[in-house]
């Protein structure tokens, strides 16, 4: 599982910082999460293959998370895309994108499928044999969801060496792979678990931006391998959180601690601060395993 | 009169090229012409003061001329703008921008005034004491206008030395400045023209993008100081012009020649070409004074 940060600063694109967008590579999927203005340029800069993106998740319809989407959708057409593109985002996103395309008398040569979200409860929005995606309802100035990406447990794989050791004949290997127990030469039952490798532990990633401090997310992100949680402000500006519905670095760390996550990744920094190192320092007062997102940074999870 | 090219490539923003946007400084106005995705970042890069932009002209509603506008409008709010912002563009632009702001439960603290265009005839859309702006109807896949920016002739200014030479008393200077003739010591009438300097010749700039080859623009851009005319293709790809409603470099030069403009500036290059120098070469076969627009280039006209 690999996370590439395309942009992680709040409010407006600037010469050297970009608004929110990230790419999660998980089980051969490339999921695009949020799409601020300039995301398509960041995708090119970090050599993400446009054709591998089939699912885009939009947390909310503020410009710094969304204004890059009309352009990206148009560019997909210019690149000759034919495959379906699925867009998950708040109700209204279809009308907005459709209007922009219509005004330009434009269209897509590929099926553009909108999955509009309006539930205030966490819901399963995508599932296949290897991965599932659920919403994480957040509390912001407009309807907003985070997203929880879970790998599914892979099947157990045959341990040929163990089978040999237990004296299990090769003719039973196919059944062992299917999950059945086997017999040794003497007709003794050998449990499947002893003849197979444990699969790798499935990974999980939670994206929570934008949101005010909100403990209702804690059970949803429990023990995830990595939690990206917005930290727009430091505690010195905590008084701005209520009105703007954002969090401080310390508050993000409190969520990470309560949820026993393995790693906390901070982002969505206000551009008022001279250095983002302050965010890490502040969060580490509460939770130790903190990393800072930054544009172009890659996390191998 | 100074023109700063923020972006002049067609279709999509890329790492080192930007879609159409330019800033025209004319008589203390800073006019923004078109606003492709990433324009606000280009404005920052080339140190254009956001607060000096009060008028934005949008030629048509294709993404590479327009998708930067919602973000720029939002950024103006974040920067605390209070002054009116006037947007001139095709009918539908107000609905599109308003929908994007509404979906984000956003607003502007400043008056945002739309001037929606739908006439197929050239019309005067802005005029003050120093400058006028007219539309130049173009022929593209959607409703499109170019824009003609004209300085007005400045008042004649007193030539004190000539007045002294003609023996005209200082008491008449105020009247001379107002345009009246004067008398010398002997009561002889001295025409105003002999007592005043000719004002500088007013400058003019025409922006024509996007358009197929279309001679109806010739009378509108007659003898302008600079004509920016799109040249998406070279003649080797002329067969693409009809379908896409674009021009070749040679065709742009033909318009420049027919209209006896002083300088032709080429832009809106297709990104299929390895070098933009080919465009200049091709155009100079027809018209000599050709310059190439490029991102960040400044023309002092």
Automatic annotation (TrEMBL), chains A, B:
Zn(2+) 1 binds at residues 60, 62, 140, 210. The keyword tRNA processing applies. Its cofactor is Zn(2+). The active site is at residue 64. It catalyses: Endonucleolytic cleavage of RNA, removing extra 3' nucleotides from tRNA precursor, generating 3' termini of tRNAs. A 3'-hydroxy group is left at the tRNA terminus and a 5'-phosphoryl group is left at the trailer molecule. Keywords: Endonuclease, Hydrolase, Metal-binding, Nuclease, tRNA processing, Zinc. Pfam families: Anti-Pycsar_Apyc1. Gene3D superfamilies: Ribonuclease Z/Hydroxyacylglutathione hydrolase-like. GO terms for molecular function: 3'-tRNA processing endoribonuclease activity; zinc ion binding. The keyword Metal-binding applies. InterPro entries: RibonucZ/Hydroxyglut_hydro, RNase_Z/BN. Binds 2 Zn(2+) ions. It comes from the Bacteria. Zn(2+) 2 binds at residues 64-65, 210, 268. Its EC number is 3.1.26.11. PANTHER family: ZINC PHOSPHODIESTERASE ELAC PROTEIN 1. Homodimer. Belongs to the RNase Z family. NCBIfam families: PRK00055.1-3, RNase_Z. Zinc phosphodiesterase, which displays some tRNA 3'-processing endonuclease activity. Probably involved in tRNA maturation, by removing a 3'-trailer from precursor tRNA. This is Ribonuclease Z. The lineage of its organism: Bacteria, Pseudomonadati, Bacteroidota, Flavobacteriia, Flavobacteriales.
């Amino acid at each position: 599982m690999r996370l590439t940060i395309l942009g992680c600063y709040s409010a407006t694109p600037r010469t050297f910082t970009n608004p929110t967008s990230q790419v999660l590579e998980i089980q051969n999927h490339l999921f695009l999460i949020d799409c601020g203005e300039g995301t398509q340029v960041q995708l090119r800069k970090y050599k993400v293959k446009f054709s591998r993106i089939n699912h885009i998740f939009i947390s909310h319809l503020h410009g710094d998370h969304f204004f890059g989407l009309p352009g990206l959708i148009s560019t997909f057409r210019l690149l000759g895309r034919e495959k379906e593109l699925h867009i998950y985002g708040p109700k209204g996103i279809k009308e907005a994108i459709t209007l922009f395309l219509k005004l330009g008398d434009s269209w897509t040569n590929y099926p553009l499928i909108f999955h509009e979200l309006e539930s205030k409860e966490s819901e399963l929005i995508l599932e296949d044999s290897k991965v599932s995606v659920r919403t994480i309802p957040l509390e912001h100035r407009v309807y907003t969801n985070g997203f929880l990406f879970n790998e599914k447990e892979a099947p157990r794989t045959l341990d040929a060496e163990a089978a040999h050791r237990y004296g299990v004949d090769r003719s039973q290997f196919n059944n062992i792979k299917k999950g059945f127990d086997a017999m040794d030469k003497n007709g003794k039952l050998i449990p499947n678990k002893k003849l197979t490798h444990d699969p790798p532990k499935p990974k999980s990633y939670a994206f929570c931006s934008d949101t005010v401090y909100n403990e209702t997310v804690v059970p949803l992100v429990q023990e995830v391998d990595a939690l990206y949680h917005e930290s727009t402000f430091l505690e010195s500006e905590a008084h701005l959180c209520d009105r703007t519905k954002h969090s401080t670095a310390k508050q993000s760390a409190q969520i990470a601690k309560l949820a026993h996550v393995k790693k906390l990744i901070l982002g969505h920094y206000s551009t008022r601060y001279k250095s983002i190192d302050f965010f890490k320092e502040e969060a580490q007062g509460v939770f130790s395993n903190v990393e800072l997102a930054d544009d172009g940074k890659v996390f191998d999870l």
